[in-house]
From TrEMBL:
Signal peptide coordinates: none
Organism: Weissella hellenica
Protein name, UniProt field: Protein-export membrane protein SecG
Molecular function terms from GO: protein-transporting ATPase activity
Classification lineage: Bacteria, Bacillati, Bacillota, Bacilli, Lactobacillales
Membrane topology: Multi-pass membrane protein
Main localization of the protein described in the UniProt heading: membrane
Keywords from the UniProt entry: Cell membrane, Membrane, Protein transport, Translocation, Transmembrane, Transmembrane helix, Transport
Record-annotated membrane-spanning stretches: 6-22, 58-76
GO terms for biological process, alphabetical: intracellular protein transmembrane transport; protein secretion; protein transport by the Sec complex
GO CC terms of this entry: plasma membrane
Pfam name, any one: SecG
Length: 79
């Protein structure tokens, strides 16, 4: 059981890396927020839509699964 969970955790970890790398860059937003011209909309919130929203949700779900697998592995290794 421990080996199956460890393998699943490694696979989910690789999927998290892929999901994070597929997310679009927000570098331009960060640069405009730090420069003088973008200070007004620094705290303006925009809801993610389309591909960005899907990738954020996938990343969140994979991170939750990875965390739960980690807790299960700690539990199994202590018993």
């Amino acid at each position: 059981m421990y080996d199956i969970l460890l393998t699943a955790m490694i696979i989910v970890g690789a999927l998290i890396i892929i999901a994070v790398m597929m997310q679009p860059s927000k570098q331009q937003d960060a640069l405009s927020a730090l420069s003088g011209g973008g200070g007004g909309d620094l705290f303006a919130t925009q809801k993610a839509r389309g591909f960005v929203a899907v990738m954020q949700r996938i990343t969140t779900v994979l991170a939750a699964i990875w965390f739960i697998l980690g807790l299960a592995l700690v539990y199994l290794s202590s018993h």
